[in-house]
Amino acid sequence: MIFEEIGLGISMMLLVMLVHLMATYILLDCADAYEQVFKRHPRLRLLLALLVANILLLGAHLIEVGIWAVVYASKGLVSDHNDAYYSAFVNYTALGFGDAGQQTATRLIGPMTAGSGIMMFGWTTALLLLVIQQHLPEVRRPPRKRAPHHEEPAHEEVQEATGAASSPKVTS
Question: Residue 116 domain-assigned?
């Protein structure tokens, strides 16, 4: 019985991983399209890239929660099928309900859902950092140009702060 539950959990985690992998491929394909968009406005391009990445990855998370919701509904983990998505979402975000209301035969589904969510949120964080790293070098402003200062011609003799002439240079 426990092996059946672990097998189901691993299968769902792999399916969720495939959804996230597809979102990653789509995101990487979109990254090439940003090269020419807003070429003269790198900050706007970074904003657009982050918006697209966040929407795409949020969509992936919502699909992944839906996959777990099917398990919750089919295994009878919720009394009403309409609550399956909410219950799966709470566990997926690792908030969790605890095991107070779960049967012994399905006690591992909640923690496996949470583990799946933790891994996918870590993956999402890595992808968002990748998007930022790809655009950040162009976003950083070049150093400000300073106003040119006029250099005085070099003199053989430089006055010290006391007003006296400096000591002569010794050459060997």
Answer: yes
Distance of CA 124 to the CA centre of its chain: 5
For residues 109 and 67, what is the distance between their CA atoms, to the nearest angstrom?
A: 12
Does residue 22 lie within any of the structural domains? yes
Q: How far is CA 44 from CA 49, 51, 52, 55, in A?
A: 9, 11, 12, 17
pLDDT tens, 67-79? 999 999 988 888 8
Q: Give the 3-state DSSP-derived string for the chain, with helices as H, strands as E and coil as C.
A: CHHHHHHHHHHHHHHHHHHHHHHHHHHHHHHHHCCCCCCCCHHHHHHHHHHHHHHHHHHHHHHHHHHHHHHHHHCCCCCCHHHHHHHHHHHHCCCCCCCCCCCHHHCCHHHHHHHHHHHHHHHHHHHHHHHHHHHHHHHCCCCCCCCCCCCCCCCCCCECCCCCECCCCCCC
Global pTM exceeds 0.85 = no
Looking at 16-20, 86-90, 158-162, which range is the least confident one? 158-162
Range of the domain at 77: 2-139
